[in-house]
Predict the structure.
Amino acid sequence: MGPTLDFLTLLPYVSELVKGLTTTVVLTVVTTLTGLGLAVAVAYLRVNGQPWMRWGLGGYVEVTRNTPFIVQLFFIFFGLPGLGIKIDAITAAFIAMTLNLAAYSAEILRAGISATAKGQLEAARALGMSTLQSYRHVVLVPAFARVYPSLISQAIIVMLGSAVVSQISVFDLTYAANFIQSRNFRSFEVYLLITLVYLLLAFGMRRAFMLVGKRVFAYQQGEQR
Amino acid sequence: MIEFTLWDIVRNLLLAARWTVVLSLIAFVGGATVGLVLTFMRLSSRRWLQRFTSLYVDLFQGTPLLMQLFLIFFGAAAMGHPISAWWAASIALTLFTSAFLCDIWRGCLEAVAKGQWHAARVLGMNYFQTMRHVILPQALQLSIPPTVGFSVQVIKGTALASIIGFVELTKAGTMLNNATFEPFTIFTLVALFYFALCYPLSCYARHLEKKLYEAGLR
């Protein structure tokens, strides 16, 4: 094969590309929400929970941060059925991505939470706010605003890392690429196109997050700089 | 059929872990070298060099490592020069590492207060003297914790080389699983091996970070 590029050979596979793109986008949107939600709970309990809880969650965070995502995915998809827990591929991908994002984000959030001055929480309590109210308004939301840029980057890293779910036959973008190149033997063109799509997704995700952040944390802007 | 004892599995994984370590070292040393060049290109006053390096960093940080690996592995073949999984993995991980290290190091150099540049220049030091005696020693100190921390990402990144057929820890795990049908044991062990490699580095990075913090540098 000569070093010529031929992108026209990709045309008959538009529906596969769309299917793959949809899966990647849906997986990303859902796991970003569940992952960040779980991260809030983990971060809260790692700071305020019982000692055994703190210890257990610390273990979860460290194990997740110090093993490759692909191994976590294989463990959930191939390993757990060994214990009699059967999970289909897309659910395994969803669980692995959520747990992965939550572990990193909880650690990021914890840094944001511990940056809250003690006096602020006491002041909120003195003003008559309930524990939950003061925690939400004084600790959590400002902490979120403080570490928001790091959370964006982390969510994007998980989205890019999701390329690996193709290995357990989830029909995502990468799976579509593998599928197409196995039919038309134009691996380089296919992967180049898919890489570009990921790049646009990462760019779009950052944009979307920034827009949301501008809205949600609008009243914090002056204070945060 | 050959029976695999637990020891057989552990032994095979240990042997494969060597290649994870070797590939990580290649990627880290190669990535640090290229990353250093990129960092200085980024600092250059030439606009096109700055633009090239930031594009480079954005491209590698904005695309999946798996795609970078595929593009190099299949791209070389498409250009008529097929390369082995060893070469593809080494090249892809080196480039990936260099982009991240360049970004980390640039941040460290920029973290040294601007006033120090001005002060050194006012004292009559030229660009290289300022760099060597004022900026670099401080930036170096700042850069060590995040660099050690990133080495964990490099080790984890090598797991993707298994997908193009490079036999390291993860690939050995899937191969052993195909032979023994004990996925739970095997993937637990594989995870433990990675943990044993990465956790000490994570702890060391955190320790260094804390020391910097206590020294008032962060």
About this structure: Chain B has a mean pLDDT of 93.
